[in-house]
Amino acid sequence: MPRICFTLQVDPARLDEYRARHERVWPEMLTALAECGWRDYSLFLREDGLLVGYLVTDDFTAAQAAMQTRDVNSRWQAEMAPFFLNLDHGTADRAMRPLAEVFNLEAQLAAQTGEQA
């Protein structure tokens, strides 16, 4: 199952508010993410505003497209857009570009023993 990692840049002046918004994400948004195939989804925030996201999904393109059909996603993205810097595509969910995975411990260990990760 593909692991996806991406980065975005949060405005360093708004880190506390960004953290506060994520302490209690709207229940409807949580449900939509789960229903659209976003699993083991986490966000990590550095003090300079670097945001690293991680999730597992069967098909990232399909999971993103499914979220685009949800009204709650449109509302959430509109509220969160002012927190981000350098959004080339208007909203954070459209600016996510997966990073290339260059190492995975479980995959290499499995390859040593002939198992599939």
From TrEMBL:
Pfam families noted in UniProt: rhaM
GO biological process, one term: rhamnose catabolic process
GO MF, one annotated term: racemase and epimerase activity, acting on carbohydrates and derivatives
InterPro entries xrefs: Dimeric_a/b-barrel, Rham/fucose_mutarotase
Highest taxon of the lineage: Bacteria
Listed name of the protein: L-rhamnose mutarotase
Organism: Micromonospora cremea
